[in-house]
Amino acid sequence: MGEFQILRIEKERAEELSGMLAKEALSALEKDLPVTALAVAEENRVIGALAGAADGDFFDVISVYVDSEHRRKGAGTALMSKLFEFLDEMNLMARVEYAPVSDEADTLAPFLLSLGFDEDEVIYPTYFIEPLKDFDIDPDSVGGSGSKIISFSEAGEKVLAKADEELLLKNATLPIGGLLADTVDKKMSFCAVDKGKVKAFVAVEPGMDNLVEMSSIWSEDDDLRDIRIMLSYVLEELKEKYSPETKIMTLALGPEAEDFIKLICSRLKPVSVSYVKHYYEKI
Length: 283
Known about the structure:
The protein is of the alpha+beta class. The chain has two domains: 5-122 and 273-277, 3-Layer(aba) Sandwich (Aminopeptidase), CATH 3.40.630.30; 130-270, Gcn5-related N-acetyltransferase (GNAT) (Aminopeptidase), CATH 3.40.630. The chain contains seven helices and 14 strands. The chain is elongated and about 60 Å long.
């Protein structure tokens, strides 16, 4: 193992981990939310990082990364060893859940297994993934809609802010907050508006590593025509901007959400992997 320094990263240094941590982890750091972030450095240069948060008996690692040139040289092991020391003091188990969206992501599984993690069966949240080239919705087969379908940029901040407030009051557990977030691509995100009220929407966020996230899909009614129409618009925009190999990903937070996604995006394939480390042996 090389000589690595492990650093605790606070809000003021969050920018240093840009490109290494998932955007939700960086956003949590910048907003001073209860998230723990560690970085691994060699000769004063940061080469990797991880971030996560406590959830009951678990510490969920929501993002982990080591520069490709420094993998299999001990940097990742040093990073995780420091995390295990912290978790041992807190009496927490480590859990890593991810969607293997690329060949690079698949290398995480053998790394976790080498550290004593076990594969854990988990139902939710479930990620759904499909390459853009295979994901298609024919707008002509959808039928008409009584709502006006417009992009987030056309809807404007006032309409989106009102929808944010109303929807969060109805159900704070749905991933429907943050329609005005900087991470949302307002040109590729669409909402169905009827009499000035948002009745359905699809929010899109560019991700890392050739990935685009449909971060929120929501409808007020059982009628899914608006969603399908919006998805056809989203796909048109995506196909203009991204390569056919770009992966499209969305997330279900429960059985109802999963059924909903399967109804409107039948081509999306569910994939979710979870690993748990129950004991904290020294490594």
